[in-house]
Amino acid sequence: MRLMTLVGVVFLGAALLGAPATGKAQGMFAGYAEFCGVPVIVARTPQLAVAARDQFGNPVIYADPGLMANWTASRVFFIAHECGHHMRGHTTPQGMWWRRMDFWATRAQELDADCWAAATLARRNCQMLWIGP
């Protein structure tokens, strides 16, 4: 129950505290690559954050400048959620194939990434939630 409460609070915070996109230059956001070993690149994206593969097949996370300007727990959860997609294999060719072939795969992968993020943050005692600028 505590896990579901944490996820609910984070999503409510994300909805209420989302910052508008800024004109920041694209680049690496320091500190979050260590969270799951995947570099976070600040670039405009309508999805706020996206787990993807670069042109060489390496995992990356693209985060919108508006998300990165939001110094709240919701930003950390977004990044942890995208890490979850990489850690759970959703961005591999097999994971992407399953997403395209099965109607329920997207929902299952999103919930799986949420659970990975919440469990990881809980194990770390949410220490990353309180990092300031």
How does this model look, in words?
50% of the residues lie in helices and 11% in strands. It has helices at 2-17, 33-36, 65-68, 73-87, 93-101, 105-123; strands at residues 27-28, 40-42, 49-53, 59-63. Helix 1 (2-17) packs across helix 4 (73-87), helix 1 crosses helix 6 and helix 4 packs across helix 6.
What's a quick, concise take on this entry?
With 133 residues, this protein is α+β, with helices and mostly antiparallel strands. The chain has one domain (2-130).
Q: In total, how many beta strands? A: 4
Q: Give the neighbour order of strands across the main sheet.
A: 1-2-4-3
| Helix fraction by DSSP (H/I, runs of at least 4) | 40-55%
Count of distinct structural domains: 1
Features:
6 helices; alpha+beta; single chain; 11% strand
